[in-house]
Amino acid sequence: MLKLEAGSTLKRLRNRYRLVVMNDDTYEEVVTFKLSRLSVYIVLSTIFVLLVGLTVALIVFTPLKYYIPGTNTDYKSAAELRELKYRVDGLEKQNQQNVQYIEGLKRALSGGNVAKLDTVKLDVPKPEEMQD
């Protein structure tokens, strides 16, 4: 197995290469670049970091963040959602009470299911008996 030394790896990164772009029909050199592996790594790393930075900035500083699930941690919007939940719960309770009231009115107006009155005789003591 070939062992790589630190000096040889650094030397290979700094070796200069020539990149030539030629016209295929005339074999004329259009562009010539003098590159090393290190310069290519640096350029590609810089482009990657810039693209990631621009993407993060685009998401953080624009309304696009609201379209990403789980990132809606803004205190104001959380408070608004809580307030809306309380209002909806109150309206649901009020709606249920209105439905019960209307059903009671319908039953009373139709004459059906009239409540039976309690006709059990109560023994209520007279006021004179209570003073003893």
The backbone outline, from C-alpha atoms, is rod-shaped
Stretches where pLDDT falls below 50 for ≥5 residues? none
- Supply the number of helical segments: 4
Gap from first CA to last CA: 116 Å
Which class best fits the helix and strand makeup? Answer: mainly alpha
Task: Please list the strands of the largest sheet in the order they lie side by side.
Answer: 1-2
Descriptive labels:
4 helices, 2 domains, 2 strands, 11% strand, rod-shaped, mainly alpha, 132 residues
Describe what you observe in this structure.
- The protein is mainly alpha-helical and 132 residues long.
- The chain has two domains: 8-65, no CATH class; 73-110.
- 55% of the residues lie in helices and 11% in strands.
- It contains four helices and two strands.
- Strands 1-2 form a two-stranded antiparallel ribbon.
Chain-wise SSE layout:
Blueprint: H1 6-14, E1 16-22, E2 29-36, H2 37-60, H3 75-110, H4 127-130
Antiparallel strand pairs: 1-2
